Amino acid sequence: MLEANRFASWCGHDNTGTLFPADFALLPLCKAPRIVGFIDCKSFCIVGYSEPVDDASPKPWTMQQIAAAAGVSMTTVSHTLSGKRPVSSATALRIRGLIDQFGYVPDAGARRLKSGRSGMIGLAVPDISHWYFGRIARGVEEMANEHDFGLIICSTSNSDPRREKRYFNLLRTRSIEGLIYTASREISPTDELMSISASSSPIVLADEGVAGLSRVPSVTSLNSAGARELGRHLRDLGHTRAVIVAGFAGLHSTIERVAGIRESFPDAVVVHGDFEVQSGYDRIDELLAQGVEFTAVFGCNDYMAVGAMRRLHEAGLRVPQDVSVVGFDDVDIAGVITPGLTTVRQDMLEIGRRSAQLLIEGLDAGSMRGVESVALPVEMIVRGSTGPVARG
């Protein structure tokens, strides 16, 4: 997160103490053209900024300049662009010629403000510092920027009800037009989420579906299909005894991935972790202590798979000669560890982009009723962590 002092210093401000009072809400930071805005970091962060403008490059004309050069009113320019009112072909041709020549671009944000819309959308994630949710956030921000929406990113601290209430209130008061929500631990929606969805407020679920909210559009990955492909890969290598280090029991992604791998290993032992490296390490440590025999490990995400590999190494078990290990997500570390991790690649950036796209489509249409859920394809990536089952 960018600090207030760094913003102020960048813009040439010295009075940072007065520029950022402790309890400010949404403020314009300064008059410098580089800054869009800033939100109180104690609650949530914003929004974004643009690159510094090259003063030497020509600036696009304003609507007022186009109107003056064309000898018409700004209303006539507006009607030419919108097509809502008839404009003579000669006048329209003159206006469009000036627009093409001098680069006027209609300000979608200004149009929204004039119509009473905030031009802002929200993203609620369990932990913005996590690689996984950070990729979703980047995708949402990219799509929001393409459609001239501002973005407020809200960290819910793993669905803390008090934090959720504050952020959902932004939706109730129309401070934001719509919300993209990512679940963290449980399949059951919180009271706040149930309440806000019942009010027909514009919401899209990103990455995880939520039970009881089937009418709320979601963007997910084909989790079962990806895990099924990993299971077949391990079977083809001769493995018959596998253990599953699953994620939180209440998440759709956990349920779907376990179901997919169990099509090949119906008797697999299932233990649950929290998607972090240490939990993968700890679960394998417990299974080894219990004397559970296995030749393959399925980690419900790459981090737990990496933790499992570390514990196997400490136990003197070679990957993949003694035990094959697979993960899910294809995070950066999966391709650089030794051996490289066989996994399923899902596109978190695209999940973020498509979630924002669905939300914006619903907002522009005035209703989310026609917005359909999306399940994105995945791809198995075979690396060195899987091999034929040891014989003898």
From TrEMBL:
Domain HTH lacI-type, first and last residues per copy: 62-115
GO molecular function terms attached to this record: DNA-binding transcription factor activity; transcription cis-regulatory region binding
Keyword Coiled coil: no
Keyword entries, A-Z: DNA-binding, Transcription, Transcription regulation
Signal peptide start and end residues: none
InterPro entries linked to this entry: HTH_LacI, LacI/GalR-like_sensor, Lambda_DNA-bd_dom_sf, Peripla_BP_I
Keyword set includes Metal-binding: no
Name of the protein described by the UniProt record: Transcriptional regulator, LacI family
Superkingdom of origin: Bacteria
Entry-linked Pfam families: LacI (PF00356), Peripla_BP_3 (PF13377)
CDD domains cross-referenced by the UniProt entry: HTH_LacI (cd01392), PBP1_LacI_sugar_binding-like (cd06267)
